[in-house]
Amino acid sequence: VQLQASGGGLVQAGDSLRLSCAASRLTFTSYTMGWFRRAPGKEREFVSTITWNSGITYYADSVKGRFTISRDNAKNTVYLQMNSLKPEDTAVYYCAADLSRLASMKAETYYHWGQGTQVTVSS
Fold first, then answer.
1. Alpha-carbon span 53 to 78, nearest angstrom
2. Nearest residue to 97 via CA among 43, 28, 47
3. Which of 23, 31, 35, 24 is nearest to 51 (CA)?
4. What mean pLDDT, rounded, does the chain reach?
5. Interval 82-106 mean pLDDT
6. What integer is the mean pLDDT of 102-117?
7. Strand 117-122 with 9-12, pairing
8. Res. 101: pLDDT tops 90
9. 38 φ, ψ to 5°?
């Protein structure tokens, strides 16, 4: 299984970014997909999750209303549209795959992880 995250970068506060995570060597529709992030000096935290058919999505309170998760099962890709970015969104963002099909917010539920993509938001 391979999860390749991309789309990170250096932006200013208020800007937008769209992260992508391309999955390979797995049956994509069998997995709930999630995004997590780790800021410097902080623990990894949940950002968002989406079930296999996009029927359920959850967001961390800190990103609710600004971030949108989506997936394209035909492309084996999950996205994270991030709007109104804030300096506190600065982190390495990781995508992850969970075979349980639950919309879990717990990192330990996710078995497969991508390598991460850096998002830096300047004030």
1. 12
2. 28
3. 31
4. 96
5. 95
6. 94
7. parallel
8. no
9. -135, 115
The whole-angstrom separation of Cα 33 and Cα 96 is 6
Closest among 75, 69, 86 to 11, alpha carbons compared: 86
**How far apart are alpha carbons 21 and 97 in whole angstroms?**
10
pLDDT at residue 100 in the model: 83
Q: What is the pLDDT of residues 40-51, one digit of tens each?
A: 999 999 999 999
Q: In Å, what is the CA distance from 69 to each residue of 40, 42, 87, 101, 122?
A: 23, 23, 20, 16, 23
Closest CA to 48 of 27, 18, 24, 15: 18
The secondary element (H helix, E strand) that includes residue 102 is none
Average confidence (pLDDT) over 17-34? 96
